[in-house]
Amino acid sequence: MKKVAVYGQSYSISAEKEIQILLEVLEENNIVCFIEKKFYDLLIEGGILDKKYPTFSHFSDLNSSFETMFTLGGDGTILRAVTYIRDLGIPLLGINTGRLGFLATINKKNIKESVELIIRGEYSLQERTLLSVRTVPKTEEFTELNFALNEVTIARKNTTSMIGVTTNLNNEYLTNYWADGLIIATPTGSTGYSLSCNGPVISPDSKNLVITPIAPHNLNARPMVISDGTSIQLEVDSREKEFLISLDSRITTVPKNTNVFIEKAAFTIQSIIPKNQSFLQTLRSKLLWGEDTRNETNL
Ligand SMILES: NC(=O)c1ccc[n+]([C@@H]2O[C@H](COP(=O)([O-])OP(=O)(O)OC[C@H]3O[C@@H](n4cnc5c(N)ncnc54)[C@H](O)[C@@H]3O)[C@@H](O)[C@H]2O)c1
Ligand SMILES: Nc1ncnc2c1ncn2[C@@H]1O[C@H](COP(=O)(O)OP(=O)(O)OP(=O)(O)O)[C@@H](O)[C@H]1O
Asked: Model pTM?
């Protein structure tokens, strides 16, 4: 491993020690490290860095010669890191200095061991599907960043009334959901917002998506798992003039006559799974799946 990128959010430095440990390990292994510019400026301002580092500010500053992107933060940081990687195929590894860290799987207590494991190549890659979104009329915000790793959410705005989301799959009418909104989630996002709306857990290597209504007002609107080769068309009926579309943590308002077209993105994200970790382990440890006093404590 010769060159990596490091990304963290530039709100506040919540992980000084962890950042220094990561940079030390990379230095010890003679790995060139490029740091995201806003994060770098925050670290310089905070006196965290003892030397200068090359920086990157945008997707166009990166290329496939970067062998890994390390993130320092929680899941939201991972979701934002994806906007720098896009279709470059740079494998992503999250060091969890946030709260849950479902996607950011490296425990901040063993950064050195985990990063050395990665440097020795003791990991596998988990390919993760993304969604791409197109609207008619066009939505400015989706010109460049029109993809999501977790989910695309359609939600009501400034109204207590439900919205109606007319849903077609491959141009065939499915139903009109009367709800607070509708989530189209990837397997990765199935354990995010969709899970909170009673959606199923989908293993990361499944070639599926899930359509999960948000608080639907009927007893028969259930989450529906579909093939990830499906093209999804949505139209919204609302008493308000606008509704919300969010792609992961990025949210925007669109006029109510906006038609939304969602399908699997043309590229995937590679997430690094260290040899001593797995999706099932994360499910058990982070979402306490199967936690039951009757089960052996061999988690
Ligand atoms: N009620 C909810 O559960 C709810 C509501 C809104 C958004 N979200 C999720 O939060 C994501 C944005 O993350 P954020 O950190 O910017 O917001 P945030 O800080 O509000 O995170 C929401 C929680 O969801 C967890 N999370 C995010 N992605 C996950 C995933 N793929 N699997 C399991 N847990 C996941 C985060 O760790 C965090 O604990 C959205 O993509 C959506 O999936 C959840
Ligand atoms: N909007 C914000 N305002 C202030 N600080 C923020 C904001 N978003 C993130 N942060 C800081 O950045 C850290 C990383 O945020 P991130 O969204 O990645 O993770 P998290 O929400 O803390 O954890 P997780 O998403 O895993 O539950 C947070 O712990 C918080 O300290």
From this structure: 0.95
